Amino acid sequence: MKYSALSWVKTTINDNLKETLKALKQFIEFPNETAPLEQCLLLLREMHGALELLQLQTAALLVQDLELTIKSLLAGSIEKNTSTYEILMRTLTHLPNYLDHLAIVQRDIPLALLPLLNELRLLRQEKPLVAYNLFTPDLSVTIPHQKAVNLSDEKLKDYMQKMRVAYQKGLATIVKNPKQPAEGLKFIYTVMQRLQQATGTAHVSKVWWITGGLIEALLQKGLDINKSNFNLLKQLDGLINQVAQHGNAALRADMPTVLLTNLLYFVAQARSKGKQITALKTIFQLNDYFPSENALLTARALFGGPDIELMETVVTLLNEDFVRVQETLDIFNRTDNPSLTELNPLVIRLRDMAKTLELLKLREQSQSMLAQATLILEISEGRKQLEFSILLEIANALLEIYAAVDILAVQGVHAKQRLASDSEIKFSDTRQFHDMLIVVVEEAKKEMAQAVEPLKNLIEHKTRDDSLLEVPNRLKLVGGLLTILSQEDAAQLLEQCNQYIENVFIKEDAVLTDETKLQALADVLIGIDIYLDTFAGNPMDAGKILSLLSSQYSVFST
Fold first, then answer.
1. Is 102 within 8 Å of 59 (Cβ atoms)?
2. How far, in Å, CA of 64 to CA of 453, rounded?
3. How confident is the model at residue 242 (pLDDT cuts 50, 70, 90)?
4. 27 by DSSP, 3-state: which?
5. Residue 140 is assigned to a structural domain of this protein
6. Domain encompassing residue 346
């Protein structure tokens, strides 16, 4: 809900961020004027209030740290230098991209902002944050399969007292034999299940359920028992005693949020894949707090600004994953008697890649990747027959996704909208086409420069020389190159300009005196040069330029 609500106020927040950035730039230009920094503080305070209201803790923390850093700068306790300004500016460019991610993907990756937060804190000479400081799971989620229980105070108190004795016995067993704690852990696990049955839908039931998942992970060696998590288990004795002493009144108490958060922090780090730990990680979205290094790098690249250079970083990481997937499939296919379990690592890798694609807003490609992961899982578990046609289907799907990812390295964020609406990949979308495009555009620009020079001389100085005679051939060559690039509309416009130049300036040997027409002709020729640059960088915007050029052509052609 909080992510959906963000979309209602995000436009206002983005406007505030733009104004904050503008004010900061003004201060950097005139560092003796404090008014721009005071304006930054007012805007940031307003944003912080909105983010706090939406319970977007990490975003609110980043805005708060930015506000505190600017206060320190205003107070003179931070040096006014390039390094300070760079960190402040970078924070302001990260924030809108980070909020876009929250609003669209509706999943947080707090650790992706940890380096930036600590850079701000370092400026203020404050203690850096650690992963736990950004661990803010949503504790309001509902436990599955809960049933309401209505025990009288007397029965509840009596039962909880018995459960407390049993729980203390489990703790004592672990203390007596810390190297082999399984017996005591099993005892505690049973107690947690019975406590959950006794307290039903009360807030405290969530503690018993989460603790059960923690115990499961300890039993399955997904976590090592240590002083920290054992101290948490000891704290539960006091919680059980509260219910034993106060009965139903204790069940109406507020959630023990600190205890719940600490328990979930350990659950999030569990390496085991048991039923309860898996359910906990899914329901509380705990994997978002400890993502893979690749996921962190991807998120940081996206938050830093979705330009082509950063997209190339993300694509490089994904391409490395594609190579590993291909190697695994190749080895599997070449082995005489392969074990189906050898495909298991692919499932996790493909699911991680799907998350990255979702971050890139390539939802169709992400869904396709998840479908391939499901298909491989069914094969590895023997639920689907392994057939060559299925492997071919998987390979083709992965190739299509790879091609879509490759486009991002060419067009960056501008490719997303088209990929979202059209998953069909053409050669003109690929990196190979882009490499050819650069060569062709460079050649076309050289010819355009040599064609425009004698025309400029004719228009500005009313003089002509033999180089004017070469203009039609040069423009025809540029038109031919545009045709090679399948830019027929641009080639046709250039041909119309070329005919006009040839008829008016060469055959009729005339010099135009109408300044409006002269300017329109110059604008079209310069515009085609810009069009070539734009087409090489962002073909989606090149079409807009071509539309403007066509209207300019009508001015001097009539």
1. yes
2. 55
3. very high
4. helix
5. no
6. 294-425
